[in-house]
Amino acid sequence: MRSKSGYYLLVLLGFVLNCSDKSVSPEQYGLQGSWRLYEEGGSPGFGYFVTPVPAEPVQSLTFTNRGQILSKGERFNSFDQVVHYRIDSTSVGPRLTLSPEPDGKPFLIGSFKIRGDTLRINPLCYEGCHYGLVRIR
Description:
The chain is mainly beta. The protein has one helix at residues 2-18; strands at 23-24, 33-42, 49-52, 60-63, 69-72, 84-90, 93-99, 108-115, 118-123, 129-135. The protein is built from 1 helix and 10 strands. It is globular, with a radius of gyration of 19 Å.
């Protein structure tokens, strides 16, 4: 009888863990703060090109601890309607989703990686692309 109850407890625990929210706390990855765009990368169909972005005028993204995102600069003009972000845990690492509303239709989905004071966002692109940003102090 005792082994049966232990088995049921283990199965119940498995269900609870599998049903948990996959959303990750924004603080977990250190994404909060302001980041200045210093390069963009992409492929027009042949090769992969990295284009440096000058420091002035400032092109930046600011991630708040409340899941909001603020954009500045003409390279981020298309981000004007994007005011929310979310980080989800996936089997290949964290996924960044930007959208106009907290749980709205995604504007951009991609992976990201922070190394030191640099942030690399890799949106889903056919030929590959990235935004390279450096933390603003």
